[in-house]
Amino acid sequence: MTLPPGKSLQPWFQTVGDVGPVIDWSTLFEKDQPVEIDIGSGRGLFLLTAALQHPDRNFAGLEIDFTEGRRAAERLLKRSLPNARVIGGDANRVLAEMIPPASVDSAHVYFPDPWWKTRHHKRRIFNPAFTQLLARVVKPGGFVHHWTDVADYFQMVRGLMDVHPEFLTCTPPAERDASNDMDYQTSFERKKRKLGFPIYRALWQRR
Ligand SMILES: C[S@@+](CC[C@H](N)C(=O)[O-])C[C@H]1O[C@@H](n2cnc3c(N)ncnc32)[C@H](O)[C@@H]1O
Predict the structure, then answer these.
(1) Residues 161, 144: Cα–Cα separation, whole Å
(2) How far is CA 204 from the centre of its chain?
(3) Chain segment 49-86, per-residue pLDDT in tens
(4) What pLDDT sits at residue 3?
């Protein structure tokens, strides 16, 4: 489904201006229940699947590319999902200024842009400041999930998170066979698995 240009996707897609300056999760979602965020939510496969599987939890995607964010929101609108939303904007800003501290049960960071060239590595979203932002928003006992197909990115993230004083390294989920063509965690996992790439997974718990 593609809505005509200008047609509102609210409340499924909202910009940082619509939801700020500080996000009130109980206003963004219909029910006040545990919140999980998907940082760089892309086409929204994770948001859609997770929201359908866990109606007792709320899922917010943070997406800087409004075209992708709106595409994801169209999938959520189609099902009228009460527990999934996409926020259009820079996740760094949303994490630093807009999400109330310790208000998130889980943060998911799946297949972040790899920025392959060494001179572009500084653009990678995972860096020491970003791990501090994760520690800021994730509740004690909550989780950070990270998957990627990029080995050197994964090693860099593990180097930051495994030694982070606020996080405990946990055993990540094992790979499982897809039961159908959309049974993947995200669109990127689907694409990379189909190409035969190994997927690296990690899980940390906020102390
Ligand atoms: C490679 S895609 C992966 C999308 C999705 N997580 C998946 O696995 O299919 C990375 C996504 O992160 C988004 N992104 C990059 N930097 C971002 C930022 N600072 N804030 C929010 N989203 C960002 C990109 O626009 C893109 O949609």
Answers:
(1) 10
(2) 15
(3) 999 999 999 999 999 999 999 999 999 999 999 999 99
(4) 56
Q: Which of 46, 47, 49, 65 to mutate to test the pocket of ligand 1 (most atoms within 8 A of CB)?
A: 65
Name the residue type at position 206: R
CB 125 less than 6 A from any atom of ligand 1 = yes
- Predicted TM-score (pTM) of the model is 0.96
- Cβ contacts of 156 within 8 Å, gap of 6 or more: 124, 126
Q: Prior bond to 172 cis, omega within 30?
A: no
| Assigned CATH class of 13-206 | alpha beta
String of DSSP letters for 29-83: SSS---EEEEET-TT-HHHHHHHHH-TTSEEEEEES-HHHHHHHHHHHHHTT-TT
Q: Which residues contact 184 (CB under 8 A, 6 or more apart)?
A: 45, 178, 190, 193
CA distance 175 to 149: 13
Best substitution site from 64, 75, 187, 199 to test ligand 1's pocket, by max atoms within 8 Å of Cβ?
64
Residues identified as active-site: 113
